[in-house]
């Protein structure tokens, strides 16, 4: 099992930056693909970015590509998401997720792939 706790959200002006962190506990973190998703009020949960267990491969949604960087530390069991040039449309609750390392028919951008989820951290970008 993996327990996930996000932090780092907050209120920021458009054009600003935030760094989200996800602290993981549990044995399967190191073999898990980790993802960040976000959900705005009245909208479905949306894929943001994913990183493979080794950290050597990442996948970004077009909406954040070039403005965000994901990284992981398999010693500290953390995943971080650096977000720059934030826009009001980035406003959402951001969730960290882990797939547990098991085989899945779902690709990295699909919420159904991920077994473990954090409680989320609110990001609000003012215009």
SSE map:
Layout: E1 3-7, E2 10-13, E3 18-25, E4 34-39, E5 46-51, E6 58-60, E7 68-73, E8 78-83, E9 92-98, E10 116-117, E11 121-126
Parallel strand pairs: 2-11
Antiparallel strand pairs: 1-3, 3-8, 4-5, 4-9, 5-6, 7-8, 9-10, 9-11
Please describe what this structure looks like.
The structure is a single chain. The chain has no helices and eleven strands. It is mostly beta strands and 127 residues long. Strands 2, 4, 5, 6, 9, 10 and 11 form a seven-stranded mixed β-sheet that branches. A hairpin with a 6-residue loop joins strand 5 (46-51) and strand 6 (58-60). The protein is globular and about 40 Å long. The termini are far apart.
Structural class: mainly beta
Mean pLDDT: 95
**Alpha-carbon Rg, integer:** 14 Å
What is the overall shape?
Answer: globular
Strand elements, count: 11
Percent of residues in helices: under 10%
pLDDT < 50 runs, ≥5 residues: none
Strand content of the residues, in percent?
over 45%
Order of helices and strands: EEEEEEEEEEE
Q: Distance N terminus to C terminus?
A: 40 Å
Helix count, DSSP H or I runs of 4 or more residues: 0
The biggest beta sheet is recorded as:
7 strands, mixed
Could you write a compact summary of the structure shown?
Helices cover 0% and strands 46% of the residues. With 127 residues, it is mostly beta strands.
